[in-house]
Amino acid sequence: MIKKLIISGLLLGSLSACEGMNTAGMVDAASSLFQAATINDAEIQALAVQSQQQLDQQNTVADANSSYTKRLNNITRNLRSYNGKALDYKVYLNPEVNAFALPNGSIRVYSGLMDKMTDPELLFVIGHEVGHVMNGHSKSQARTNLLTLAARKAGAASGNSIVASLSGNEIGTLAHNLVNAQYSQSHELESDAYGLKILQENNYDKSHAVSALRKLGSGGGGFFSSHPDSAKRADRIEKM
């Protein structure tokens, strides 16, 4: 409720200060912002599915006979679901060292990351991404990105679902932002704890988490830019 009041106050202030601007467009923008701020979990899931479909179309997905797919299936054989949440894994044939999770439980792993990691190290990274889903980080990131997009969007008709009103290009923008999500340090640490928990459940020790983070901290771009301070997090786990 406080969030809604703050947004409403900001919009009223903007409207009163910009008499020479397109008032109808501003009202439509206010509608989009309100819809984004009040979006429910079902709409977030629908948005995630649309983002997943677009990303899968834009990337080369390894087929069932690929050695990458077979390896990922083996690593995640005990992680097809977690705490009742169904998880869906695919490999993107892309040399970038990256992985990401969407709010609906879709986890995508790049072949470049798989080439860099041992199986236990990759399990930690995947467990980390599962943590983002289970802790609601991916969902809050989607909501934040939707608010940002809605702030720039003045064409949504009042009363229509903000998700239903998005164009293909706008869904693409949101999908790109979710792939390159900038999580907070607290979110990263919470997800590291999930990765460690999943390692332990599969009879691996913390050394694989440390070595995975050391590898991620040794370069730039992709996973490095969207998951900051890998070396510091490795130090933290090593000192536990």
UniProtKB/TrEMBL annotation:
The protein's required cofactors: Zn(2+)
Residue span, Peptidase M48 domain: 89-239
PROSITE patterns: PROKAR_LIPOPROTEIN
One cellular-component annotation, GO: membrane
Recorded GO MF terms: metal ion binding; metalloendopeptidase activity
Cofactor comment text: Binds 1 zinc ion per subunit.
Signal peptide: 1-19
Pfam family membership, one: Peptidase_M48
Keywords annotated in UniProt: Hydrolase, Lipoprotein, Metal-binding, Metalloprotease, Protease, Signal, Zinc
One GO process term, biological-process aspect: proteolysis involved in protein catabolic process
Membership in a protein family: Belongs to the peptidase M48 family.
Stated name of the protein: Lipoprotein
Species annotation: Advenella faeciporci
